[in-house]
What we know:
Layout: E1 2-3, H1 4-7, H2 33-42, H3 53-62, E2 67-76, E3 79-88, E4 94-103, H4 107-122, H5 128-136, H6 143-157, H7 161-173
Antiparallel strand pairs: 1-2, 2-3, 3-4
Helix pairs in contact: 6-7
Amino acid sequence: xxxxxxxxxxxxxxxxxxxxxxxxxxxxxxxxxDRLDEILAEIELGKTELIDPKTAAKVGKGAGAEVVLLxxxxxVEGTLALDARLxxxxxxxxxxxxxxxxxxxxxVTVEKDLVEALIAELDVTLDGRTRRTLYSNVPxxxxxxxxxxxxxxxxxxxxxxxxxxxxxxxxxxx
Length: 174
């Protein structure tokens, strides 16, 4: 298992590789990655893979957010399971949550299913442009390239530049 906040920080709507926060009008987006990394370092979370709602609320509060999005994933016997939770930073209460699962080979579909489930839980209606952006924004459909890229980003944020370089090269080779 892994955790989006540390290993896949671009799990927030509109922050997938290649997208823009402006694609989701009226939404509030997390502060820039550098600021979040500073906050994580301040509360000594850089060494852990799992972040509980209370810790996420502390990070979000430090970043000036009202709500944070937490997520996790697991892969068991070729099945990918994803979950997402919106946590209030003041109370650490989980406000909404959603799950999705499917074959690892269909991880893009599983991720989109999770987003759709979370949107349904929030009772949000997306306009046509936003919905097209959501479905057209697919950086890769290769699970191995995706995990190598995620690993590279994590190593880079930890200052392990040689390991990051190797993982980026692995992702590009897929």
